[in-house]
Structures are given as structure tokens and as C-alpha cells.
Task: structure prediction
Amino acid sequence: MNFRFATYILIILIFGCWITSCEVSDNGDLDGYWYMTRLDSVESGKTVDMHNRQLTWSFQVDLMQTFDGSHDHWDSIMMFRFDHTGNQLIISNPFIYNRLEGDEFLDSTQYWKLKHYGINDIPTCFKVEKLNRKKMRLSDHVVRLYFEKR
Result:
């Protein structure tokens, strides 16, 4: 076996291992770290500027994470399952992310904790009004949420 052939086989093996070890996401532009910039109330028409609130949503594979950067505490990180199909984003299965004491799954009596992030019910179905590499706009019957990637 010559050196060139052995190198070729090694590269194929490394590439094969790399491909099979990665979870592949087909979320497109949704994947990544989104900063909430504005929240509109659908019912009242009121607008809240969220630029200084440091609320973020991030998406990867089938997990969504919300984070409140104004708090440095474990209960400021929420995790969810999500399904993004077409112009719908369905969010479900919320839990408080806590590596030290164990994750705390939320039941319906605790859903009030999610309103802080613009999520008013579980499961909730947002209409994806706009989604590209830099901006996202979501709405349901209660709120319209605006996000930017930075």
C-alpha cells in the first residue's frame, strides 16, 4: 500500500466520522442567537422597546433557549422543544435549565414565568411573518415579537 492511497483512505475515514458525529439542522436562517428588540401587543397596540432588556432566544436542532441577560441566575435560562415548519413556529415542553440541581419542567401553573419572554401559552404557535439571516418577526393572537441577530 503506498502513502498516497493510505492518506486518501484516512481522509475518507475522518470525513465519514465527522459527518456521522454531527447533528444536522435544517432550520435554515432560524438557527442562531436572536436578540428581542421590540414587543407589540396585538390587542392594545402598545409597543415596548426591548433593546435594553437583554432578552434572547436561540435555536439549534430542535431546542430553543431563552435567556434574560439582566439576571445572572440559573432561573434566567429556559429551554423548550420547537418545531419550525413553513411559516409556523410551535414551542412546547418548557423547562428551567439548571445543570447543578437538575432541570425543572414547568407545568401549567408555572406558565406565567414565560410571559417575560413573550410566550403566553404552551404549546404556542407563532406565525413567522419575517425570517432572514438578520431579522425575525413572530406573532400570535397576543403579541408580535421582533428579533435581530448581532
Notes: The chain is about 15% helix and 45% strand. The domain at 25-148 is CATH 2.40.128.280 (Lipocalin). The two ends are 51 Å apart (CA to CA). Confidence is low (pLDDT under 50) at residues 17-21.
